[in-house]
Amino acid sequence: MSVPGEGLAKGLAVTLKTMTRRSHTQQYPDVAPELPPRSRGVIGLLAENCTVCMLCARECPDWCIYIDSHKEEVVVPGAARPRQRNVLDRFDIDFSLCMYCGICVEVCPFDALYWSPEFEYAEYDIKDLLHDKDHLGEWMATVPPPPAHDRRGEPAKEETAAARKAAGPAATPRAAGPGPAARSASTPGVRPPRPARPGPPAASAAPPVDSAAPPAASTEPSAQPAEPPEASGATE
Ligand code: SF4
Ligand code: SF4
Question: For 73, phi and psi rounded to 5 degrees?
Answer without folding.
Answer: -90, 135
